[in-house]
Structure formats: C-alpha cells, structure tokens
Amino acid sequence: MKLSGWGRYPMVETDLVSPHSENDLRDHLAKGCIARGNGRAYGDSAVGTATTLHMRHFKRMLRFDAQAGILEAEAGVLLEDIIKVFLPQGWFPKVTPGTKYVTLGGMIAADVHGKNHHKDGGMSGTLVWIDLMSADGSVQRLRPDTPQFSWTCGGMGLTGIILRAAIKLRRVETGYIEQRTLSAPNLQGALEMLNAAQSATYSVAWIDCLSKGAALGRALIMLGEHAKHTALHSALHPDPFALKPRRKWSMPMAAPQVLLNQYTARAFNAAYWRAGQRKTEPILTDWDRYFYPLDAILGWNRIYGRHGFLQFQCVLPHETAEAGLHALLQVTSEAGLGAFLAVLKQMGTEAGGISFPRPGLTLAIDFPRNPASLNLIERLDQIVLAHEGRFYLAKDARLSAQTLKASDPRMATFAEMLKTTESGDHFHSAQSKRLNL
Amino acid sequence: MSKGVVLILGAGSDIGRACAHVFAAKGHIIQLAARDPDRLTADQADLQLRYGVSVSLHTVDALEIDTHADFVQALPVLPDVAISVIGLLGTQTKSMKDSVSAIQVLRSNFEGPASLLAALASPFEERGSGTLVGVSSVAGNRGRASNYIYGSAKAGFTAYLSGLRHRLFPSGVHVVTVLPGFVDTAMTKNMDLPQRLTAQPEQVAEDIYYAVVKKRNIIYSKPIWRVIMGIICALPEEVFKRTGL
Predict the structure, then answer these.
(1) Three-state secondary structure string covering A364-384
(2) Among A198-207, A252-261, B3-12, whose mean pLDDT is lowest?
C-alpha cells in the first residue's frame, strides 16, 4: 500500500503490518523494515522501504512508581493516554511535542523537544531505560550514557525497534498553565524577548512570516508556567486538572487548493497578530489548549489540500541566529508561500547521538507542497548551511543526503556506526535511504 | 447496572482485550480468564494503571470440559457479566481434509464456550441476575463453502445462546448474542479484508458494552452485516449453491 507521514508527502509503497506480539514482530523483521508509531512524523521517517511495522498493538502501561514518578510502558502508548491517566494523579510529561497524538516510541526515536527545551532539555533526558529489539530479534535494555542509548534517542528507528521504555514524569499541582503573551514588532524584538525569558518554564514565539520590511518577523511570544493550585479561580477547583474533553472538530476532507493562498494566509496571520497584541494580561489556559492547540482539529493536515504539506524546521546557533533567521524570513516573506504556522523557540543543551536540538534558536514553517515551495525550501536549506544550522529529521520529507551531511558532521559517524552493526543495515525507512543513513 | 464484576473468557484475544478496556474504563472489576494467563500480566498491569480497577487472572481451558464447574467455583466472586470471546478460526482447507483439526474447530467454537456458559448459567439463575454474552459469528447464519466448519460450530453456538436466553429469561438472567462480521484481529491477520466491512475490536467491545447495558438480545457488529446476512440467507438454496459467496 501507499503510505506517508503526517504531511501526506511523499507517498511511498510499503507493506504495512501490525504485529500482535513480540514473537509476531520477530517474524516480520524483514530487511528494510522500520517501526511506525502514530504516523505523526511529517515526512517519510516511519515508512519502511520494504515493511512498515505499525506498533499499535504495543500500547500497554506496565508499571508506575508513584514515589519517583517513573512510568514503564510499551512503545505504542499514546502521550494522550499518559496524560489522561497520570495528570489526575498530579503528574505531567517532562517533555511534550506540539501534539499529544504521538507514541512513546516515536517521541524517543525523534528525541522530541517541547517549549521547555531551553530549560529542561529534550525527551532523551527524561528516560531511565529503553528496551530495543535488534535485527536478530534479541532484546536489550539500554541505559543512559551508553553509546547504543544515545544513538537510539533521535536515531529515527534505525538502530532497532523500541519496544518499551521507562520515563520520568513531572509533578504538577494543576492541569492549567499561567500564560503571558508579549508582542514584538519585529524579529530583533522577538529574539530579545525570548532571551529575556530564559527563566520561563515554557516559551515560544509565533512569527508572522509573511510580514515584510520593518515588521519582518513580528511575533507574539507566549510564556507559560504550571499554575499552582492557589492560582486557580475557585470555580475551577472541582476540576483542577482540566480533564473535561474539549469539543473536537475534524477536517472531513482535503481542503480545495483555492482556500489557502498568500492572501488568505496573510489575512489570517495579520488578524492573529492583532488579536494576540490585545491579550497582554496573564491568563489561565488548560493544558490541552496550551500545549496542543492544533489537536482540537482532527486531521488538520488536510487543511493543506490533497498535495500535502511540508514543514521546514532548522536550528541555528546563537552566534549566527539573528542573521540567519533574518535571511530565512526575508526569503520566505518575499516568496509569499508561508502558511499559518511559523514557530520560533530557544533550545538548550545538546544530547543524544544525532538528536536535533543544540543551543540556539529553532524555526519551523509550514508550506503547502508544490513545486514553488519545494524550490523555496531548497534555498532555505542553503541559508541554514551558511549559518551552521541543522535540520530536524522528524519534520523532513525532502532533504538531500548531501545537505544533511554538510549540516551535521555527526551524521557521517552515525552512518559509519550503522554500517558496522547488523541492525544498521537492516532497519531502513524511505527517509534513511534518501539520506544515505 | 451497578459497577459489577466482569469475567472475560478468552481474555488473550483482541476482542477480549478490547472488552476488558471498555468495561474497566466504566469502573468494573475485571476477571481475565485464558488458557495461559501468564501471558496476560502486562494487560493486567495496563488495565489497573489506566482505570484504577482491580483485575485478576484465571486459568481456563475451553476444551477441558470437566474443569469448567471447578473453574467457576474457584472464582473469587461470581461475576455479574460473563463474556465468552473464545473461538478458533482454523483453516477451512485443513479442516475439510483433516478431521482432527475439524473437530478442534468444532469444539473450540461450540462445545467449549457452551460448556463454560452452562457452568455459569446455573449459579446466575440461582442468584436471579446477571448477563451472559456469547461472541458467535455471522459465519453461523448460513454455511458457505469457504468456512462451513467454523460456520457450523458458530451456528450451533448461536442456537445454543438463543435457547439459553429463552431458558434464563424467567429467572432475570439476560443472554446477549454477538454476531460480528469481519474483525481486524490476530485471527484474521492473514486475510485480505474489505475495510468498510471490517470492524476494529474496540468497536465490537463498545457494541457489547451497550448491548449489556441495554439488554439487547442479538447484535451485529458492524450493523451492515445484518443487511448482508439478511440477503445471503434469503437466497434460495438453488441459487445460493451456484454463487461464489
């Protein structure tokens, strides 16, 4: 069958199987297989060249240490389920990406980061161990500070199949976030505000990537802290963890192309920025709205129409960030192809063998997939290279092997390491083939 | 219905697991019974963590008929709801030629589950309450060349459930017959199933939950199967035997 990632591009021919047990999984360890979680990587990271191993039947929670807040669970458990079960007990994930519809295994394979990376680091830092199945079907428990562990975190499934893991959760008093929104008139202002907000637990900037000239990079900076119980309005006390489900909307079909163009995107962005400027007072937002605004629209990837979309995400070192971001936004705004989402945030320390995060600033922009945007992104790649930045493989659908290698010297070491192990030549996604990993 | 105890017979199956989740999520205490309950310790932990209900494991072999009464005796409490998800598809071609495997299919789909439900029926009847659920199959509605061994056992089981419901009605015990069409489970993993006609185990489990709550007699899952089987059963035999159904 034809299978893709969240961006619905590229569509790749693969044999999709859903093993029921570990033994069943062993039977399907064909050469050219890769594990797939909930399919939220944007490109072709979780599409096997031969076989794609859907991990949906591996979704059991195994043990919880309520003293230390450590959960042991199978790789296919959804982050949403972890939150639903443990938030009422006062625990929240230490690291969460922008959607709760990801699996534990997927979060590890991509070594995901959240709005708190500058302060708390990424997914790999929250792990106690990982159980990994190698090409020969054997299972090994990997612990932090071993080479196998660090290649597996962020290793995009290429070191083997993540079966189980133990993760540390964070204590929280409520399910609410105290959110403050600041507005910056341009990129420089946005960078200053993010820099001044180092101590904030969560920080992220939404950038209007279609604004030009003096307003280039105008942004809303959103800061957040876990609300203490005392901060809750008394009306909320009966439900301090905000577990009442939100109304879900869904995209019934791919949107017609005409609905999303530079005029509608510009109008949306301008309206959003003005609305954000008005709400400068701190507000209480529930966890679902704060961390996962897009999850309220099921199948939001269809907004971009049937040709799918691309997300470009890079990280630039602090030293080159301002010049690099300026160049990236300049080119993007001139092209007028950007859509609703451009997100900028600070990153903290580097971890993991080939994990994406490094100290600096990361920018993510969505584009509808078409020849013009593919060309534009090629240009963005070059700007990133010129500013010594790197790319996020969980978002990638079209990067070239050459560009990847040039952006990150660790990739060559990773590819070498994979060559020397049986598993390295066994697990392959469409992405790893394209990138020569 | 108060939050009674729910026994699942054949708890290692996909539909069995899904039923455990649905009932545990509503706060029911769960008893998981299977031939090899050691394989269910992870499921037990998962259910307890997710829903905060207690879950116990029990050994039962559907084909060991003479152990069934003791199995029911040994349960920590007599359940309020018992769901049999026991079944064996086998391979039709093998079952046609090899009578040992045919008998295995017949016994696993009819004799075994019928005997287990019988062992529960009397104490339920004595108590004057409870619900017995039997997961049969639309394959039992009409024998077809492609799966009549399995189908005939399910036909027997469906008739058995109907009789049991008739017998137990005066005592206040309810019996639900579940007739799933295709379900996406380990049992059917090598079959190429049409997506529109194939239910997920979670869907079947939800259907079972509502059938128990609403005291439904016979449910199809998905409901389209009621229509499909209605048509298939309405075909005169002269016509039917010439089709490739």
Answers:
(1) EEEEECCHHHHHHHHHHHHHH
(2) A252-261
pLDDT digits (tens, 9 = 90+) for A53-105: 999 999 999 999 999 999 999 999 999 999 999 999 999 999 999 999 999 99
Question: What amino acid is encoded at B63 in this protein?
Answer: L
Query: How is chain B split into domains, by residue range?
Result: 5-240
Q: How deeply is A244 buried, as exposed, middle or buried, from its count of CB atoms within 10 A (0-12, 13-18, 19+)?
A: exposed
Residues of A in contact with B14 (CB under 8 A): 20
pLDDT > 90 in chain B, percent:
89
pLDDT in tens, B40-68: 999 999 999 999 999 999 999 999 999 99
B186 touches chain A (CB under 8 A): yes
Confidence bin at A340 (pLDDT 50/70/90): low
Would you tell me how many other CB atoms lie within 10 Å of the CB of residue A24? 15
| Burial (CB count <10 Å: 0-12, 13-18, 19+), residue B171 | middle
Between CA A344 and CA A203 the distance in angstroms is: 9
- CATH architecture of the domain A176-400 equals 2-Layer Sandwich (3.30)
Q: Print burial letters for B216-233: b (CB count within 10 Å at least 16), e (below 16).
A: eebbbbbeebbebbeebe
Percent with pLDDT over 90 in chain A: 75
Question: What are the structure tokens assigned to A437, written together?
Answer: 């990993």
> In Å, how far are A163, A404, A413, B36 from A111, measured between CA atoms?
15, 17, 18, 37
B43 touches chain A (CB under 8 A): yes
What residue in B sits closest to A164 (Cα-Cα)?
Answer: B42
| ipTM, two decimals | 0.90
Task: Report CA Rg, chain B.
Answer: 18
pLDDT higher than 50, residue A371:
yes
User: Looking at residues B210-219, what average pLDDT do you find?
Assistant: 98
The domain locations on chain A are: 176-400
Q: What CATH code would you report for B5-240?
A: 3.40.50.720
Taking 70 as the threshold, does the pLDDT of residue B1 lie above it? no
A171 close to A377: Cβ distance less than 8 angstroms? no
On chain B, the residues whose CB falls within 8 A of the CB of A64 are 49
Hey, what long-range contacts does B240-243 have (CB within 8 A, 24 or more apart)? B240/B142
- What's the pLDDT tens digit per position in A32-44? 999 999 999 999 9
**Chain B CB within 8 Å of residue A143 CB:** no
Pairing of strands A249-250, A297-298: parallel
CA distances from B27 to B11, B210, B216 (A): 18, 15, 21
Structure tokens at A228: 């203490």
Least Cα separation, residue A400 to chain B (angstroms): 36
pLDDT of A260 over the 80 cut? no
Using the Cβ of A6 and the Cβ atoms of chain B, whether some distance falls under 8 Å is answered with: no
A63 vs B: CB within 8 A: yes
Residues of A in contact with B189 (CB under 8 A): 18, 20
Q: What are the C-alpha distances in Å from A435 to residues A160, A402, A414?
A: 18, 8, 12
Partners of A81 on chain B (C-beta within 8 Å) are 50
Supply the mean pLDDT for chain A. Answer: 92
